[in-house]
Amino acid sequence: MQIGCTKKLLDYLGQASAAANTEIDPLFSWSANLLTLNRRKAIAVVNNASRYGFVLYGLTAKNRKELASLILQGIRACLEVERIDPTLIDRYMADGGEAISCTKTANSSFVARMNKFCERAKWFAEEMHPEEVLQRKLLIRLNNDYLMIEKYCTPYELLADALAGHYGTESPYKCRAGVFDVTLELETPCYRRIIIPMDCSFSQFHIALQTLFCWQGYHLYDFLPETCPDGRPKQTLAGSPQEDEFEDGTTCSDADVLLSEVFPERKKIIYNYDFGDDWIHEIKLVEIKDYRYNYPQCLMAEGDAPPEDVGGPGGYAELLRVLADPKDPEYEHLKRWADGMRWGPFDMENTNRRLKHSLRNGRVW
């Protein structure tokens, strides 16, 4: 794998500046630069074909000796977090070569792309983990940047297209995904079927569920994977709980638990959103299967979800009753309120478009 290094980085490594081999496919060559983040040395490494990059942070003299291994780990991590087919990852790493060749940067265009990534890395400097050299948890967000290349695109889309084109495959993705039936407890039917990668955390599942039911993520929530024989929660996965909530050992952060750690051992869990209105969702596992995408999708849907802050199932039933009768004294008031909440019929196409991006953004989109 060829790594085109800036003079600053080559001096830091104490290596001679060999010329880059310009005949190497840009997909198999990367550019790297030394920078300082939070007064700690870091190296930004960017793929020349796709602009997809990663950061090695808080480098020490020991890390400098094992830099080749760290760079190869970083390249593999980029492909893994994007859920590239594992067999394709192995082919790519083999085709790129197990040895790292540090050269001068290949051309000014690659340097410009790398500099743009370095600027983006500085935006995330405060979120970098001081005990981790490879900032794996930030890879998705670091590369969630829109670029204008004939049309708007992102580094992760460019990476996928480059891999698909080079290896002649329609989709470079492959992962294990769960198919779930999600039913909101209402007097009227409200059901969604979703497929979502099993390496997603429950906090990501929460974002997907919010998107499915057209919620806005304004309120507290939790997941109840398991209950005691008397019906009390045995374990709770909570969104952004306070540290003192962990003391009894029955509550933990939903960001720290993956779907694969609960399913398929559990077949059904409960998701409760908005502790005032208590929107109870029953989530049932249908199956776990191979999946050729790297984002969740809604497969089936029935019924519309209530708007936020309508007052729980009882308030929603009252809203539907009033809106069904234009002569009701409350009709105009509640109609204006519902319109202001942007409440409307479920839109499958729009929902799936939002699902594709919401998990990458880390918020309801």
Number of spatially distinct domains: 2
What is the helix/strand order?
EHEEEHHHEHHEEHEEHEEEEEEHHH
Shape: elongated
Pick out the low-confidence regions: none
The CATH architecture name of the largest domain reads 2-Layer Sandwich
**CATH C-level category of the largest domain:** Alpha Beta
What does the average pLDDT come to? 92
What level of helicity do the residues show? 25-40%
Could you explain how this protein is built, in words?
With 365 residues, the protein is an alpha+beta fold. It folds into 2 domains: 2-167, Ribonuclease H-like superfamily/Ribonuclease H (Nucleotidyltransferase, domain 5, 2-Layer Sandwich), CATH 3.30.420.10; 176-305 and 346-361, Structural Genomics Hypothetical 15.5 Kd Protein In mrcA-pckA Intergenic Region, Chain A (Roll). 32% of the residues lie in helices and 26% in strands. The protein has helices spanning 7-13, 61-65, 67-81, 86-96, 108-123, 139-142, 155-167, 202-212, 312-323, 331-340, 348-361; strands spanning 2-5, 29-37, 40-47, 53-57, 101-104, 147-149, 151-153, 175-184, 191-197, 221-227, 233-238, 251-253, 268-273, 279-291, 297-302. The strands form 3 sheets. The protein has an 8-stranded mixed β-sheet with strand order 12-11-10-13-14-8-9-15, covered by helices on one side. A 5-stranded mixed β-sheet has the order 4-3-2-1-5, with helices on both faces. A two-stranded antiparallel ribbon has the order 6-7.
